[in-house]
Every structure is written in structure tokens, then in C-alpha cells.
Amino acid sequence: MRAFGKYIGYLGRVNEGLIEQMVLESLPKGKDSVYLDLGCGDGVKTLIRASHIGTGDVIGIEGDKNLLSAAKNGGIKTYWTDINLPWPINDVSVDCITATEVVEHLSDLDNFFSESKRILKPGGKIIISTENLAGYHNIFALLMGDQPYTGPYLSKVFSVGHRPCSKFYQGKNVAYPHLNVMTTKALRQLLSRYGFKVKGISGIGFYPLPPFLASLLASFDKYHASYCVVVAEK
């Protein structure tokens, strides 16, 4: 079982790389663009993305103060704030927003979408990646009577469900639990309801299939892939 847990961890790293590749390919270009990364962490990925855009005007919002100092040292204009609350950014001032593996951790999705719409310029782009509640691995868990692998997580102390990977998940739910998980179609609908035009949807990964088979299947059935990357414009 330990070997299977390591294999799932390997697939997670592969999927993380594929998601980042998709995000980079979806970024707009423009040296005068204002770019905001929500949940910027230490800013390493943020700066790589900014380089792809071609801009030095980079903003990062992060709730972890220790990570934020590293981002600030990298030249990012940083804000230490809860993404569930109004953001300290002017109206109609941002050209591109990225939120990778962020929305599932939020308690207030309405704030996320309304704030994104408020600060984006007309034609501005938002790129969101998140886990897909309709992924086949989650459907399998439900058929077995278990909690979906993506959550929502029920405890900050114990791993509930997640068979046969309970030990692999144990302790991962404490700092950043999954509170709001959604299907890819639900994310698309939320964006549309808030007035965004969805420009692209990609599926990433198909747990527990190996990368080649997972990529092949995701290209045919993005709505049941393990992760999604959704690109929309204001």
C-alpha cells in the first residue's frame, strides 16, 4: 500500500506540471500588463508566469505570511490578506488573474468571483485550476460509499475516506482543507453567471491511470478528468 501511495504522489507531481504548462500556455502577452496571482505562495511560479506575460507589474495575494516574505523579496507587490475577504486592489486595474489550486480552499466563492470581476479590465483574463468533483476517482469513491477524494475534508485531524490512500492523506488536511469542491461544469456555470465568457476548458489527469493513458482520456472526456483548467474573460 505504501508503494501505491508513492505512485499516487508521483501522479500528483506529473499533474501539477501539466497544469502549470496549461496555465503558461493560456497567459496573455503584454509588457504593460498588470498580473495578479491569487495564493502566490513564495512567488516562484508567479515570477515565471510574469516572465511569460512579459510584465514586471506583478501582484501577489497570500494568506501565509512566511511564504509572502519570499515573494516580496522576489520583487512582487504583495498583500497579506484572506482571499475570502475584499481584496485591496483598485477597480478595473488588472489584466490577468491566476488562481491555481485556490478555489477549493475558499469558504466564500461569491467573493472570489465578484472581486475578480471588479478588478479585471474589460477583456481581462482569469485562469483557474482546481480539482474536479466529477472525476472518475471521486465517482468510484462515492460508489464505494466513501467521501470523494477531493473532499470537502470533514476533519482537520483525521483522514476520512480516501481509501486505499488514507495514510497518504493523513495530516494534509490541517493547514489548507478543501472546503468548496465543484465539478468542471459547475465552475463554468459560476463564471458565466458572474458575466465572464469562458474561452477554454482543459482536463488534466485521470487517477489512477498512468500519465500517457490519463492524458489520452482527458483529451476525450475533460468533464471527468481529475483536474480542470478553465480560462475566461471579462
From TrEMBL:
<dbReference type="InterPro" id="IPR029063">
    <property type="entry name" value="SAM-dependent_MTases_sf"/>
</dbReference>
<dbReference type="Pfam" id="PF13489">
    <property type="entry name" value="Methyltransf_23"/>
</dbReference>
<protein>
    <submittedName>
        <fullName>Uncharacterized protein</fullName>
    </submittedName>
</protein>
